[in-house]
Amino acid sequence: MSASVGEFLQQIRQLLNKDADFGQQCSTSEDLCRLLADGEDLCCLLSVLSNGRISPEGDGTVSFYSMNSEMFGRRNVKFFLSKCVHEFQMKREDLFEAEDLLLLRRPDRVLTGLRRLLSLQGLPNPANERMPSVASLDYQPLSCASRRQSDFIYSEPETPAAAASTPAAQLENIVSEICHLQAQLVDRLSLLLKFHGELRGPLSEWSSDLLDSTFKHTEHLLQVHEYFKQQLDSLAESKSAANFCTNLGSMFLQVKPRLSAVYSKYYPDYPLAKAKMEEAFQQQPQLRRQLELLERHFNAESFSILYDSPSKQMFNYQILFERLHRTAEKELATISEQAANSVELAVVECRRLLSHLNERKRYSEQEAATRQILQSIEGLPEHLTKLENVGLHRGDGQFRATLGKEQRALVQKECFCLLTDRQLIVATPAASSNGSSQQPWAFLFDVSLYENDLQLECRAGEPGGLQLKQSGKGLVQFSRPGAKKLSAGVGASLWTQLLEVRAANLPDGWNSGGHRFRRVTFEEGSECSRCRETFAGLYFQGYHCDHCNQQLDRTCLTAFLRHRPVSYPLGGPADSVASRCQQLVHDHLDRWSAERLLRRSQPGAFLIRQSGEKLVLSIRWQRAEAYHVIIQQRVSGSTGSQQYSVDPKNGIWHQSLERLVTHHRTNTLTIENVTGICLLELLLPSIYENFN
């Protein structure tokens, strides 16, 4: 993390009373922009800096939260900038533009502008005139031509100028947006079919092959989205946002298989079809001209917007479902907790579907790249030309790499490597006794570059030498032992063995605790036994235990192997609490996942998780709320052992985490100990069953 970003985050945590989790993943100004993109934290910051004169509750004409109906909080950011200019008499050039934050155009300018704003803390301009309303802010949405790939591509339904600011009204608005988004996509897909029909006419210059690739999935997309629209309309018929939320999760589970079946085929073909269409436009400009004439004929949006709309639809769903979930949690007083949980289910399932579709798209792109790489290798065994066999291959064969002219000079000194996200193809010259290069030999290895953030570095002047740079862990160097003493065949064999050890990529402890994990390539669509996510990557590689038959991805395996048996509390025998604390600290849980687990348990349930270099106690208290308290740690001066406490001001320290848990099972935390926490009496085994 850069010093400027860290300094700014520290100030924000203090001003907004955020805990250590806030912004812990931010290392650059771009990460900071993504953190603040929705605008809510920015507006709350403005309220603090103005000494409360600009309130998050609004002044009758403005509400921060009601403005979240625009994409990525655009109105929130524009409101924030206008208030800074008015309240603190700042110049617009001293701040930043909304696009600098939302589209990451100039993230460094955002950080500079915010630091200038923080320097004005306590010096607001007491203006007597009334603050301008949202309607008076000169807001103009981005035009269709200037929108980027990451922007929403749908237009919102018309809403009254003075939008209601209550969560109940926001629920109604978001439900209306979801239904409007779906109806708009159905209209666009119907229009695409009209384009298809006209382009198949006798006067069209589009070839049948180009038409088939361009409109291959349009009809199937229209059918599945018409069905989805019917389901959404049936939920909206009751005119009750609470009823819509209550049934959204089960309805999306019903629609998800159909969406997955269509989009799993559409996502891999979409980039290829679009690239083919653009290539045809360059070779035959009259094809694009014909589309422009049809746009005028149908009085429609540009063909590009119509054609790209299905590719962004799942992302739009996720954004709207997440907003609906956040608003539903604020409105628990009028809607049931079941409704909020139903919306959360829709959010989770939408994320999983989007993740799966993105992997399918990346699989298609990497498959084409890998085929091209394999075609460039001479002497490659026939069975290795089949992609389904490449993932399991170890470097036991020799073949010759076809090198480009610009690389022939380099091959005399360096390794020649071809990389995909899951494969490493290494070709290097075999050194003779006098050091001169002979015919190159090469090997293929399934090194997990994707999971471990490995970068390749070739060392000049060392034939047969190779370095793999692992992020944060220095260099892992492989060199062919005895290159000048052993024959080329023997040297190649030893070097292969070294690479195979690294290619196994097994974390420490893979064969401990009665387990024996090995790395394998699973069938497409296989899921991790722990997180239930589909295996990612080109060859769907993960880890399988020969004893318990679990199949885990890299993240879950690492977390699984970290669970070591803990020592029992000092001065007493093992009790039921200590025996359950062996999974007490969960390194792989973030704040959101902890809250999701606690929300499904009873009040008083808690768990401990790692947050950076600190431990955090996450507790559920009342309804669905969760509080996060940092566990203080120190080293005892007398014994030199580690001690833990959530109440250091009263001098209560414990020799182990087990003792801390045991103490607070029978000694209630009071509001004087930790602000906002009144009860901590239960350690429910049901929380840990989620990790078994």
From TrEMBL:
Limits of the Phorbol-ester/DAG-type domain: 514-564
GO MF term list: guanyl-nucleotide exchange factor activity; metal ion binding
GO cellular component labels: cytoplasm
Pfam families, sorted: C1_1, SH2
Domain (SH2): residue spans on this chain: 584-686
Domain of life: Eukaryota
Listed CDD domains: CH_SF, SH2
The DH domain, residue ranges: 170-360
Domain (Calponin-homology (CH)) ranges: 2-122
Gene3D superfamilies: 3.30.60.20, Calponin-like domain (1.10.418.10), Dbl homology (DH) domain (1.20.900.10), SH2 domain (3.30.505.10)
UniProt KW keywords: Metal-binding, SH2 domain, Zinc
One GO BP annotation of this record: cell migration
UniProt keyword annotation of Lipid metabolism present: no
Name the UniProt record assigns to this protein: Uncharacterized protein
